[in-house]
Amino acid sequence: MKLPRSFYEQSTVDVAKQLLGKYLIREHTEGASVGRIVETEAYVGPHDLACHASKGRTRRTEVMFGAAGYAYVYFIYGFYHMLNLVTEAKDYPAAVLIRAAQPVEGIALMHRRRKNGSLRNLASGPGKLCQAFGIDRSLNGADLCGEVLFVEDRGEPAPKFLATPRIGVDYAGKWKEKPYRFLVRGSDFVSKG
DNA sequence: CAAGAGATCATCT
DNA sequence: GATGATCTCTTGA
Questions:
Q1: pLDDT tens sequence for chain A (193 residues)
Q2: Nearest nucleotide to A171 by CA–C1' distance?
């Protein structure tokens, strides 16, 4: 069952937790890619110094200010894309970063996109995940209730998870210590962070 | 195995 | 003109 827009309208931390054990699906002309989400991070609003939108409403962050249930994809470090799912009310900037997934379908395609990857190395990090799934800025603003990029509930019970501080946000002052990173306990497919 | 450098560009000042 | 929600490779023990 495809997750409805109302799912993304919940509080960002709740969405981040509930996404664990759900399935990310990317339809592409080359074929479908499916991964079980095992790691997420919550970026909870304009007051969250780790959230891009704390710098104000700009061209880049515009999507985060929009309605829930759309993709926020951006390019960083000159190499990598990051996939976020926009949450909460329109005009409230918040999103969940998808950090890692366990490859389920389209694994050969993922290997082709990421030359030198073992199975565990295919999508165990936000940049790697976007490479494996063929996600780039053309998907910025894509509707998660559409046919190209969405998340499915396949009836799996909610997995046990851990919460830790977020990765790579040392500049965020006291916000860097918030336990807004969520990982499926015992999964071999999370990032190392 | 841990640590560090380098790659490379869209976005904002 | 600076910098970042990263990854990979190289180095050295």
A1: 999 999 999 999 999 999 999 999 999 999 999 999 999 999 999 999 999 999 999 999 999 999 999 999 999 999 999 999 999 999 999 999 999 999 999 999 999 999 877 999 999 999 999 999 999 999 999 999 999 999 999 999 999 999 999 999 989 999 999 999 999 999 999 998 6
A2: C4
Residue A162 belongs to some domain of the structure: yes
Report yes or no on A107 lying in a domain.
Answer: yes
Q: Which of residues 12-31 of A touch strand C (CB under 7 A)?
A: none
> Do A187 and A173 contact (CB within 8 A), yes or no?
no
Containing domain of residue A105, as a range? Answer: 5-184
Question: Residue A53 and residue A55: Cα distance in Å, rounded?
Answer: 5
Total domains present in chain A:
1
Nucleic strand C under 7 Å from the C-beta of A168: yes
The CB density around residue A128, as the number of other CB atoms within 10 Å, is: 21
Cα distance between residue A186 and residue A193, in whole Å: 15
Distance CA A1 to C1' C6 in A: 32
pTM > 0.85: yes or no: yes
